[in-house]
């Protein structure tokens, strides 16, 4: 009976996953876009709802407009719900009209990046509008009753049953609309053959707007209703997109009933896993439930070949142009010389900014290799970096391995982990690989980084200062001497060497093979290139760079914890690399300067107190603009259009 209780309890979270998955399917059918910001949209609407209930103010999510508008002194549940669902509909319409209607035929990278930019913007705007306290400052009293319903030994809150019934009812209604209304038939026509639909007099944009409004309303509704069941948190709630996509994939992002049943099943299995962890002491106390969506995604992508682009598809069409790399050594030398001079002459804040930017440059180079050169969209960069950092600490503390051997071994661990994480690249490409690696990053964060013996638990692990021949190369120092200049110089030199190495790889035989694979896998194979080997090498190089950045980040922070390598850090790394120029080492250098805590942050803080608080929100907006209007990034603006 205990198992049945937990399975039924899982109906609540399963219904949330199912409704989000249905929204993903609706938006994808209308625009061919998988919206990674779908759950984040619902998250924002839920924050707005509970703030409206408490204060009577409607919080607006658009920078430049008033942050809040007073509407009613004491809004009822029905009034607040209606207002916020209208807000959700307006957000859906704006997202489609201003962003995604321009990306219907864009390459997968542009679509992924645009939705990542929107995701980062929504998370940042919640921090700006609702403060750092987030949901802790809100009274979360959901619209649904939560009293216990007792059937024999079963004691389950009413809202679990109601959420499941709402999900089933909405799905049944939508299926009926799709089958028996002109709107549903028009949507199916656009999803099946957009050009043919236009010839029949159907407007794809009108269909797109209506479906995106509907998807956003569903997202907002399910997060509002389920807020007492789930944890209403900007990051955690936004990551519900992973199980939502997992539920949508078995139906090939096209079937509403399959999305419903998959979502309910995922929620129930996750709930039962929590129960088994309590009953079976031998099961580790980690987030095993997060492995369920990852497993579903892998199986769906492996057996759902029809969802993947063909191997002969021109994946590089419309992607940013790859530069020659001839100028990179000079850029790296000049940037390193300037950074070292600044490290020696400027104060503590600027030295810290330079160190953060240098480490972020190495991380961005990892993205340049795997995405810019090979066309594989990986969203697990920081998960791989974390493996290197934690492994280095374990080698040092548990096995007594000294510097520099411990960080080298840590990087090797990252390479192995990266090869495992990017195994789907052999089978899937483009958008599907982005989905798989995002799920892998979430799984690593919950399954591996929650192992206390490996990461040090919630408090993290202290990182021993690196020494070489008696010389202290660490960052620690007293007063204004922190961060130590020696550490800054070491990091700068490593970043410069990494830039030169990546440029040389681009210009060599390996680089030419990567570009051939990025362009057309079947043509590359026909010309004698081992496509699998090229992907494996690219994955190894990218992982080695991410691992290097990871160990340097550990040395910089001195105490390394799970919070140093969260999933959103990977999303930010890919986003900034794309914004700066994802196909050149020089773009990685600019991405490093744009990183949080880097030179841009220091500059903004110097110009105005609090200006850096808007950095992520503005970066998200710039990222959206870049995906739509400037796909070659900042560095691409200065490249000739025929660069290769």
Q: Layout of helices and strands, plus pairs?
A:
Blueprint: H1 2-31, H2 38-55, E1 57-59, E2 68-70, H3 77-98, H4 108-130, E3 148-151, E4 154-157, H5 158-180, H6 182-192, H7 194-199, H8 204-226, H9 234-238, H10 241-248, H11 256-279, H12 291-303, H13 328-345, H14 348-373, H15 381-399, H16 405-421, H17 424-427, H18 430-447, H19 452-455, E5 461-462, E6 467-468, E7 471-472, H20 485-507, H21 509-519, H22 521-526, H23 531-557, E8 559-560, H24 567-580, H25 585-594, H26 599-607, H27 615-629, H28 633-636
Quick structural summary:
The protein has 644 residues and is mainly α. Helix content is 67%, strand content 3%.
